[in-house]
Design goal:
- This protein is an alpha+beta fold.
- The protein is 73% helix and 8% strand.
- It is rod-shaped, with a radius of gyration of 31 Å.
């Protein structure tokens, strides 16, 4: 008794899958246009999301660094540097002070140049001033006025040549990061809407072309779910394939970008270019599947009402 039931189930599943595949085979050009349209929409979203993640990575690297840099005059001795370091460290709100000698500044500059580091190592030490990197407490770090008051006090010290703050730079980066995230989610929403509408239109065309077949199936007793399921599979598979194509295109695009900008990224403090994590990739694939499923579901409303 169980074997005939299993045989019927296998036959039904095979028949449903064959009907779903026949939809692609009957209208290959329509599905090809739909596939590449969805892939372009998904690629724009994934690429913008990648840019936003790289901006966040750059900002995270910079924000974790010192919030104030004091550049010293060339004639400042090591003893005076140590004395100044201890005096600055004793200021309320200063957590840490790190000394960068002229030699260390040149080494750091050459390292940041990456593949072009030989250029920095040929420059004389005198081209790089000694400096103090000042790390502030959370309270002082959030108080813009207090930071500027501290910078003004330090700039009056004779051995100090310049005090550099990074407020404007961080604000611009934060604004760029916010714009990147907003653009990514906006394009993500747009891509989802495009996927739903394109899949709905494609599946609706298939339903119209197969009305006689659907009528015959209903006449012989096919259930509504049995009729609908191949179209749902068709829409979900098409959107999923489009997402996979978009992510594959993004992979090759990032390889090209990495080959062009890989040597420049260390100058920006970001190291290598950040790729989308596997969890994000999986979420995008699932999102494409659900968008295709929803688009196919919307196109079948009239079929259910008929």
């Amino acid at each position: 008794m169980m074997e005939p039931m299993q045989g019927k189930t296998i036959f039904r599943v095979a028949h449903i899958l064959l009907r779903a595949v026949s939809g692609f085979r009957r209208r290959p050009w329509l599905h090809a246009v739909s596939l590449f349209t969805l892939a372009a929409a998904f690629l724009s979203f994934a690429a913008t999301l990648t840019v936003a993640l790289n901006l966040n990575h750059l900002i995270g690297g910079w924000v974790g660094n010192s919030e104030m840099t004091v550049y010293l005059k060339d004639d400042t001795s090591d003893a005076e540097i140590t004395q100044l370091k201890n005096a600055v460290r004793a200021i309320d709100g200063v957590q840490k002070v790190q000394v960068t000698t002229k030699a260390r500044a040149r080494e750091k500059f050459a390292k940041d140049l990456g593949a072009y580091g030989d250029i920095g190592s040929t420059l004389p030490k005198s081209a790089f001033p000694a400096s103090l990197d000042i790390y502030l407490s959370d309270q002082l770090s959030r108080d813009r006025d207090s930071r500027h008051q501290l910078a003004a006090r330090l700039s009056k010290v004779n051995m100090i040549d310049e005090v550099e703050l990074y407020d404007d730079w961080f604000e611009r980066l934060s604004a760029m990061s916010t714009m990147g995230r907003t653009a990514a989610w906006g394009l993500g929403l747009l891509a989802a809407v495009v996927a739903i509408l394109v899949v709905a239109a494609t599946v609706r065309t298939g339903v119209s072309a197969r009305r006689k077949e659907i009528s015959v199936m209903r006449f012989v007793g096919a259930t509504q779910a049995y009729v609908r399921l191949p179209f749902l599979i068709e829409g979900a598979v098409e959107a999923t394939l489009a997402m996979l194509l978009a992510l594959l295109s993004l992979h090759y695009l990032m390889n090209h970008v990495d080959s062009v900008l890989g040597s420049i990224m260390p100058l920006l403090g970001g190291g290598s270019i950040i790729r989308l994590q596997s969890t994000i990739l999986f979420s995008l694939i699932v999102g494409g599947f659900l968008a295709g499923l929803l688009g196919a579901r919307l196109s079948l409303r009239k079929l259910e009402e008929a």
